[in-house]
Amino acid sequence: MQNEIPIIQKVYDFYCELYLAAEKMPKKDKYTLGEKLSRTTLDLMELLIMAGYADKEAKNIFLGKANAKLELLKILIRLAEEIKAINTKKYLLLQEKLQETGRMLGGWLRSLR
Question: How far apart are CA 5 and CA 113, in angstroms?
Answer without folding.
Answer: 19
